[in-house]
Specification:
This protein has an 8-stranded mixed β-sheet, sandwiched between helices. The radius of gyration is 19 Å and the shape is globular. By secondary structure, the protein is an alpha/beta fold. The N terminus is likely disordered. The longest helix is centred in the N-terminal third of the chain and has 14 residues. About 30% of the residues lie in helices and about 20% in strands. It starts with a strand and ends in an 11-residue tail after the last strand. It has 8 helices and 10 strands.
């Protein structure tokens, strides 16, 4: 469930005429050649919500292209105005208003196709999940799953999670943070692109309330070791494991197809569960 920046893709033919919907077979990719400047989803996620409002910096995700199925496109068109959030960095989000209740909110960064997110939301309806990704097919798939299963505790964010944390979330507004199978950036020269770094934790700590859980999982052992090192060293977090080290996979994190395939290949999956300690003075964030 890595983070990805989704490059502009094709728009379904059903959206050519706003007043007419062309029938399509579920699960079938649809293609349409758009005119220059024509929005892909007029009522859906914006291609680059933050635009040029923010500085250039090294990012933890990379571009990739992927087709959107007809079902995903339909979900984006129908459900984005109600359940979607474009991360433009221009306002502070009222999470109670976004979800329509005062339940605790967990931020999930990089939800892939959203199957595990939907299962966690179904198993814990009293916890709201704000899933952030930039992969349009995954956004559409998660919205479709939430709609089909009647999951009102899911919202989908489109854009850079750093901008969301830094510009759009209030202090202490999150009850948890989940980062499952982020891009490991295995080459040494790319390690600076990894998401879990001291500067990121500085920022996350300001948005997590005391007792909030940071839960990371990866099947790339060198990255798992780095995560453990930086989380252990950070003064705002403490390991939930009394003896330190990695945690067993908690029951609430579903075993995904991606993870199952890795386990069949002999990959070792490591979970890390750290708790936000009582607040102390934090250094300014520079992420």
């Amino acid at each position: 469930m890595s983070e990805f920046l989704n490059a502009p893709e094709t728009r379904p033919a059903a959206d050519v005429d706003p007043g007419r919907r062309t029938p399509h077979a579920p699960g079938v990719s649809v293609r349409h050649v758009r005119a220059k400047g024509e929005p892909r989803f007029p009522d859906g996620p914006i291609a680059d919500p933050a635009g040029s409002h923010f500085e250039r910096r090294i990012r933890s995700f990379q571009p990739r292209r992927s087709r959107v199925t007809a079902g995903q496109a339909d979900a984006l068109q129908r459900l984005w105005p109600q359940w979607g959030l474009d991360i433009d960095g221009q306002r502070v989000v009222d999470l109670g208003e976004l979800f329509g209740n005062g339940n605790p909110v967990v931020l999930e960064i990089g939800f892939g196709m959203g199957e595990a997110t939907a299962r966690m939301a179904a198993a814990d309806p009293d916890t709201n999940i704000l899933g952030v990704d930039v992969h349009t097919p995954g956004q559409g798939n998660l919205l479709n799953l939430a709609d089909q299963q009647g999951l009102s505790n899911i919202r989908v964010g489109n854009g850079d999670a750093i901008i969301l944390l830094r510009e759009m979330l209030a202090p202490d507004s999150l009850a948890g943070l989940r980062v499952y199978f982020p891009d490991p950036w295995p080459k040494k020269r790319h390690h600076k692109r990894r998401l879990i770094q001291p500067e990121f934790l500085d920022l996350a700590a300001t948005r997590l309330g005391p007792g909030a859980i940071v839960h990371c999982a990866t099947d790339w052992e060198p990255y798992a070791e780095q995560m453990l090192e930086v989380l252990t060293a950070h003064p705002a977090f403490e390991n939930t494991q009394p003896e330190g080290g990695f945690a067993p996979r908690p029951e609430f994190r579903p075993l995904t197809r991606f993870e199952g395939q890795g386990l069949e290949k002999g990959h070792v999956v490591n979970d890390l569960l750290f708790r936000r300690v009582e607040h102390k003075d934090q250094p300014p964030t520079g992420v």
